[in-house]
Amino acid sequence: MTRSSVSNENRLKEVQVGQEDELSLIPAWSVVLSIIVFGAVQYLFHVVMPHHKHEMLPMRLLMGYSWGTAFASYVLLVGYVSRDVKRRRMPAGLWMLIVVLMPGGIGAVVYFLLRQPLLRPCPHCSTEIASSCHFCPQCQFQMAPVCGRCFRGVQITDVYCTQCGHDLAEDQAPARLRAYSD
Ligand SMILES: [Zn+2]
Ligand SMILES: [Zn+2]
Questions:
Q1: 84: how many CB neighbours lie within 10 A of its CB?
Q2: Cα 12 vs. chain centroid, distance in angstroms?
Q3: 56 and 91 share a domain?
Q4: DSSP 3-state assignment of 31?
Q5: Are 135 and 105 in the same domain?
Q6: CA 19 – ligand 2 centroid, Å
Q7: Residue 20 is part of which domain span?
Q8: How confident is the model at residue 178 (pLDDT cuts 50, 70, 90)?
Q9: What is the DSSP secondary structure assignment for residue 159, as one 8-state letter?
């Protein structure tokens, strides 16, 4: 195996770890519940509601489908929030109450506006730190590629810093980032 194919493989792994599958956060109970809710809305529109006029059928199909989808998606969203709130170390009970009880999905909007940044453990000392940090505040472990002069974040493919023009090739890359340098 050539060196570049090894580094490509590393790069692929890094990308896969980076995009932790957000959809897999949705718990099974909320998927089941959303299917039940969708079914219940169809039942409401086609069985419970009185329908004498036959020509209203397309309208009823459309309304049943759109309300069913809206409610089912909201159940999935509540399921997602119930997991997301825990991995961000926010008070789960309080936020679930806000998301479920505030009308018209406003609770969910408030949640996505106010949620804390995702925490991840430092690979060196396991301190939980915000994913936006460039260095660990406890052990100085470098978490992201940065410019050696202004210490702002850079892309691993950049040759010069976009903020100060520093030649990034002059920097000493940490060992775990050296795979990207070729
Ligand atoms: Zn650390
Ligand atoms: Zn710079």
A1: 20
A2: 19
A3: yes
A4: helix
A5: no
A6: 26
A7: 3-116
A8: low
A9: S
